[in-house]
Amino acid sequence: MQILFNFPLKSLNSFGFDVKAKEFVSVTNTQDLLEAVQYAIDHDMPIHVLGGGSNILIHEDLLGLTIHLQLLGKSMVSQSATHTLIDVCAGENWHDFVAWTLDNDLPGLENLALIPGTCGAAPIQNIGAYGLEVGNWIDSVEVLDLEQLDQEQAWHTLSRQDCDFTYRNSIFKKYPNRYIVTQVRFAIPRQWRANLSYAELANYFLHRPQPSAHDVFAAVCEIRSRKLPDPLVLGNAGSFFHNPQVSEATYLQLLEQFPQLVAYPQGIVDGQKLFKLAAGWLIDQCGFKGFRLGNVGVYEKQALVLVNHGGGSGKDILRLANLIKEKIHAVYGVDLTQEPIMLPP
Ligand code: EPU
After folding, report:
1. Does domain 74-189 have CATH number 3.30.465.10?
2. In which band, very low, low, confident or very high, does the pLDDT at 106 lie, cut at 50, 70 and 90?
3. Pocket of ligand 1, candidates 242, 304, 305, 337: which has the most ligand atoms within 8 Å of its Cβ, to mutate?
């Protein structure tokens, strides 16, 4: 295990912020991970875990120990009559993993193609796109529990139920400093049907019935590339805000005021009918698309994405985000919640 000092993180956060880690270590196996964690505890340091760096907002240099998780490996574990179990280590690139499942004739994850980041980060925010949330197909997650380090159960398995997946949320976001995800086990149904529940995807295949999983994969890649900026070209962390969920009463009130409002029924939760509002639409309608504030701004093709035009910082993005939040609250009475995880917390 080699600790590096004042390590530059510019290429390890997708916003491309010029920040440093006071102490930094790359780990490629679980023994090194345990050693790194022990080192931080012995030196009374905070721990920051980095995967692909695509859903974080580093707003200042990171003190303590930054652990870059590079645990690699993926394999098919078994097949039952109904499901295929697949294990993937936390450091594997998500998009490459999705491509690998298709190459091995194990379709089911193709709607989540081209999402930046690592497989270990996928359950943390329960990544979702084009009608699928990753939690649907997760069987269990292997973790190192930092609150049980002195006990035998420090390494344990959380079932899908334990993970408590909801829209862009999970137990890992609820207890942000407790678990380090080391491996994810997927249970993918063997009977495959194209998931075209997202209107944009259904429209794509309107005149091409019965697409294969590879067709859906290619379509998702094409749609995403058209609408979302490539972090290697323009720094960003995907959607910067969640799509807010509101009650039916709030939805109807807003609809009366804004007849073009874009919203999706979410079914009944705790006896209440809920609606998800398209935050991109709310922000767009307030004229923010393409807006710039110094070196940062709102992406010109998708108002939900904040970008670093070069030389921007986490603090610049937070200033812009606050401006947007205040405006959205003033116009619609709706509070936006930030999606990327703050580092330091
Ligand atoms: N819209 C606008 N203007 C905009 C952006 C969106 O009017 O600037 C409208 C669109 O016309 C559309 C609606 O808002 O009617 C929804 O837009 P879109 O299909 O682009 O999806 P989204 O709700 O903005 C969500 C996810 C994305 C995911 C897409 C596709 C969240 C926070 N974001 O975006 O996830 O790719 O759906 O499923 O749920 C991410 O989390 O980083 C991410 C990119």
Report:
1. yes
2. very high
3. 304
